[in-house]
Amino acid sequence: MYSRLPMPCVEWKEENRRYALCFFPIIGAVIGSLLLFWQYICELMNIGVILRGAVCVLLPILVSGGIHIDGFCDTIDALASCADKQKKLVIMSDPHIGSFAVIALCSMILLQFAFFCEVRNYYIIAVGFVLSRALSGLAAVTIKSAKSEGALQNFVKPAHKRITVVVLAIFIISCAAGMLFIGLYEGFSVCVAAALCLVIYRAVAYSNFGGITGDTEGWYLQITETAILVAVFVAGKISEVLI
Predict the structure, then answer these.
(1) Percent share of the chain, pLDDT over 90
(2) Which of 58, 71, 85, 147 could form a disulfide with 215 if both were Cys (CB 3.0 to 4.6 A apart)?
(3) Which domain holds residue 208?
(4) Is the pLDDT of residue 192 over 90?
């Protein structure tokens, strides 16, 4: 469900999904590991920043299969419609993509590519992929859903919420501690940016849809990962000036 990585086939039943959200951050760990491996290859073979940045953008898409980008596009179309809440939910369920989603998607990918070409601390970004998914999973089980049915509800309804929250909180605290250890300025900047994205996500979801959906989760994940890139870049520049 979370990736295109080959996995053993299991029966799709409720008891198998009670702790599914607990493992969502593991996909971020896979993406982060591949990102660091790609950086090692780039250094070893002296690959330029353009190809380096392009592959960095593509890695999360290849691993996830683009499922989060699909939600990002659907949410952008709904937000751009300026319709009422129910109409926005209908727009999000439409499989077609609108012009506003295309514009936003191209802008986001271009922005991510530019910052991937500029940043230097890839270790914090790698941890950021884990952090974004831990926060996304936490949002899924703690923020009210806009719909009683759908892909998100397939995981939220059967979830053991207390255990899920505890496990995801451990992931979040571990990621924050790890990033602060790797780089104090960058780590602190990422933590602030990620927390701010979560607050904005909750406000946007409630005001526009009456809660969250599977599509808004994808939108939130993409926004957070872009914000993490920006935060690492800005903090890196500030630390250079201060040092």
Answers:
(1) 65
(2) 71
(3) 21-242
(4) yes
